[in-house]
């Protein structure tokens, strides 16, 4: 078993209209409640960070899976969207949908189209964030081949 710790420090002073700080090994950002949820919207927020974590994990996993499958000249542009719901008096991230647009060497596009569904599932199963939220957040993949 491999174990790795990811460390983050946060600081918050005041109530819900305040702004806090988040510091990781590389990431330094202000945090607050999103404006759309009644906060002041300064910096980032936990919801955006969750979608960002899922998106960055998935695109890295997908690139690795495509490379291991023998594809060359890999380019992926991806839009990801998280949908949160308020139900039973709680906010919850309900669904995260990734929309990767995948480009590979032109002579390999037909091969990619045939294997794409399987490769997308392998990438999702190799993504630590997908594995961590599975069962709580529905992750959907809506790919296109460019």
UniProtKB/TrEMBL annotation:
InterPro entries: KH_dom-like_a/b (IPR015946), OsmC-like_firmicutes (IPR019905), OsmC/Ohr_fam (IPR003718), OsmC/Ohrsf (IPR036102), OsmC_Ohr_Peroxiredoxin (IPR052707). This is Osmotically inducible protein C. The lineage of its organism: Bacteria, Bacillati, Bacillota, Bacilli, Bacillales. It comes from the Bacteria. PANTHER family: OSMC_OHR FAMILY PROTEIN, OSMOTICALLY INDUCIBLE FAMILY PROTEIN. Coiled coil: none annotated.
């Amino acid at each position: 078993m491999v174990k790795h710790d990811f460390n983050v420090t946060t600081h918050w002073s005041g109530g819900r209209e305040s702004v806090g700080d988040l510091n990781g090994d590389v990431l330094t950002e202000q945090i607050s409640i999103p404006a759309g949820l009644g906060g002041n919207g300064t910096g980032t927020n936990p919801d955006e960070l969750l979608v960002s974590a899922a998106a960055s994990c998935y695109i890295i996993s997908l690139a690795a899976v495509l490379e291991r499958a023998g594809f060359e000249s890999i380019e992926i542009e991806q839009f990801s969207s998280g949908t949160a719901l308020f139900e039973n008096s709680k906010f919850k991230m309900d669904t995260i949908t990734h929309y990767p647009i995948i480009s590979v060497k032109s002579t390999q596009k037909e091969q990619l189209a045939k294997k794409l569904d399987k490769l997308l599932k392998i990438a999702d199963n190799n993504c630590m964030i997908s594995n961590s939220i599975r069962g709580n957040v529905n992750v959907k993949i809506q790919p296109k081949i460019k």
